[in-house]
């Protein structure tokens, strides 16, 4: 069975990823700000480390965490409050990702990063086309909403700086609007945003369960990983579409 490190494990998607991984029999270590959250959810099989990657652990400690895992799932997101959006850490996802990737870079074995991102982030390297209104809107969001800029820069860091690294393999998963519930595997994964399904303005949605399920499958490696590593897949649920 695999060993996973999950960041953002107490979040709405992260907790589903933890549940899915433990259901599949894997060992999970979660870095959490408050141990009570997962305990209250009955996720007792998880080893919890209290703190944050950015503030609580040295580079050596992160290296140890990463070397103990086959894959790191990052489901971090800014708390949607004024301070969560506009106060530090304004680059929560990017800076955490950098610390994890650099810990992997210093290790001896190949590891996987599965990053939860957003379809509001366009992968320019693949020539992805967004409708004009969506490009204007996501451009505005980049300059006004730090969590969106964080997601953009985290994806660009993987694409442009980590690239096809020998030790640090990655996949950047880009869901659209997220829903709770809908705990089924009725989802499809494609390489690029489908402009007809929209982005910020589109009606297409995905459930957090489906994102967590796909992220768990990626983290396990195998064919799913070989199909999507070094890529930025978009996940859609046909049943939750227009
Ligand atoms: N909402 C959408 O429709 C949507 C759509 C596409 C993509 N996304 C992206 O998906 C990601 C996750 O979404 P979600 O709804 O599952 O998120 P969520 O429920 O808000 O969970 C966020 C997680 O990040 C942690 N966190 C927040 N601030 C932190 C900090 N300063 N230091 C350490 N940990 C921190 C939270 O910990 P605590 O429990 O301790 O607060 C929690 O575990 C986000 O990056 C978001 O941009 C969202």
Structure description:
This is NAD(P)-bd_dom domain-containing protein. It comes from Chloropicon roscoffensis. Pfam families: NAD_binding_10. InterPro entries: NAD(P)-bd_dom (IPR016040), NAD(P)-bd_dom_sf (IPR036291). It is a single chain. The chain is α/β, with parallel strands linked by helices and about 240 residues long. The chain has one domain: Rossmann fold (3-Layer(aba) Sandwich), CATH 3.40.50.720. It contains nine helices and ten strands. It has an eight-stranded mixed beta sheet with strand order 3-2-1-4-5-6-10-8, with helices on both faces. Strands 7-9 form a two-stranded parallel ribbon. Helix 3 packs across helix 5 (about 90-105) and helix 5 (about 90-105) packs parallel to helix 7 (about 145-160). It is globular, with a radius of gyration of 17 Å. The termini are far apart. The model has no long low-confidence stretch (mean pLDDT about 95).
């Amino acid at each position: 069975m695999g060993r996973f490190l999950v960041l953002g494990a107490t979040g709405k998607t992260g907790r589903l990823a933890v549940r899915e991984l433990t259901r599949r029999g894997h060992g999970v270590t979660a870095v959490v700000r408050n141990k009570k959250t997962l305990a209250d959810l009955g996720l007792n099989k998880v080893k919890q480390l209290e703190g944050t990657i950015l503030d609580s652990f040295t580079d050596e400690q992160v290296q140890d965490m990463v070397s103990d895992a086959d894959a790191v799932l990052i489901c971090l997101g800014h708390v949607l409050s004024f301070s969560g959006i506009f106060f530090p850490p304004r680059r929560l996802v990017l800076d955490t990702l950098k610390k994890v990737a650099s810990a992997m870079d210093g290790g001896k074995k190949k590891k996987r990063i599965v990053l939860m991102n957003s379809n509001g982030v366009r992968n320019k390297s693949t020539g992805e086309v967004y409708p004009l209104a969506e490009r204007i809107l996501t451009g505005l969001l980049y300059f006004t909403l730090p969590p969106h800029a964080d997601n953009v820069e985290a994806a660009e860091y993987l694409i442009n700086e980590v690239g096809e690294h020998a030790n640090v393999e990655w996949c950047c998963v880009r869901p659209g609007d997220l829903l709770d519930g809908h705990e089924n595997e009725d989802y499809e994964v494609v390489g690029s945003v489908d402009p007809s399904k929209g982005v910020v303005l589109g009606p297409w949605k995905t459930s957090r369960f489906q994102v967590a399920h796909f992220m768990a499958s990626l983290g396990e490696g195998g064919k799913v990983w070989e199909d999507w590593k070094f890529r930025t897949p978009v996940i859609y649920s046909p049943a939750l579409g227009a």
